[in-house]
Structures are given as C-alpha cells and as structure tokens.
Amino acid sequence: MRLEKCWFCSSTIYPGHGIQFVRNDAKIFRFCRSKCHKNFKMKRNPRKVKWTKAYRRLHGKDMTQDATFEFERKRNRPERYDRNLAENTLKAIKAIDKVSSARQDMHHKQRMKKGKIVKEQREARKELDQSIHMVKAPSTLQQEPSLTLPKIMVKVLQQQQEENQAMEE
After folding, report:
1. Nearest C-alpha neighbor of 11 from the set 37, 41, 43
2. Are 96 and 67 in contact, with CB atoms under 8 Å apart?
3. pLDDT of 99-136, one tens digit each?
4. Which residues contact 27 (CB under 8 A, 6 or more apart)?
C-alpha cells in the first residue's frame, strides 16, 4: 500500500482517494481533496495559505528539523521478508512515534511560553500605567506636580457649615 503526499497541503493520501493532475511536461501533482486542487488551479502559493504544512513550517509553528523525519522518507527499494526484521521494525516505529510526539509537544510548549511571557509583560505594563500613583513615593509626587491630579477649590457656604455643626451637637 503506497501512501502519497498532497502536493499542496502535504497531508497523506490513501489509495483510492484524491485527485491526480498530470501537466503537459508529464509532472504529476497529487491532491488530497478538491480544496487543494482548486487552490492549485488558482495558482496560490502553499507557503502563503495559512492551513498548509508549508505555511506552518515557514512561520515556526511546526518543527522543521528533527531526526525522526528521516524515518518518514519514501523508500522504493524492495526488501526480502524477514519475520524478525518486521517485528523489530514495528517496535521501532512505535518508539519513534513516541519520541516524535514528545518532541512536538515540547516544541508547542516552547512556542506558547514566548507568547505567555509577552502577554504577562503587556498586562503588567498596563496595570502600572493605570496605578502609577500607588507606586510613586509621596516625596516625588510633591516634587513633580505633573504626576498628581489637579486640585479643585470648592467654596463652602457658611450656612452649610453651621448646619453641620448643629448636627454634630
């Protein structure tokens, strides 16, 4: 069973699926679905379309270099069947899959860590801008009147003061 790769999005094409396009120069293009085929016909660049594997690799969202990618390469050389070799190969495939998934998880965490740090810094800066009066020392606020709010003079009528004194007694 031969599994092909989509020319546009690099996803796996299983036998009996997808579309094949053969150009006049006998170059074969395989597409996993009509979405990829239509984008190819519209002459879109896969590196500029956000949902493709090429875009994700180019913009650092997927891993580009890893030793486990070496095992995914296509090999056209036929091998003589050996039961022990097949058993060891299947064990190796499972081990490689575990290593690959662990590395992908680590890559994702590293990417998210950068964004998280930037977000925390932005929030801290915003909070500092909003509550600078709590951070600045009172002596600096007296020296720099531009940091304090302007004081408003309010005239209080004598009659209101007398009423307040009467209430207090």
Report:
1. 37
2. no
3. 888 888 888 888 888 888 888 888 888 887 787 766 66
4. none
CB atoms within 10 A of CB 6: 23
Place of tokens 């965490």: 109
The predicted pLDDT at position 97 comes to 87
Q: Are 2 and 15 in contact (CB under 8 A)?
A: yes
The amino acid present at 20, given as its one-letter code, is Q
Helix, strand, coil percent values for the chain (each to nearest 5): 55, 5, 40
Q: How far, in Å, CA of 104 to CA of 62, rounded? A: 8
What's the confidence (pLDDT) of residue 44?
Answer: 95
Q: What are all long-range contacts of 156-160, with beta carbons under 8 Å and residues at least 24 apart?
A: none
SS3 31: strand
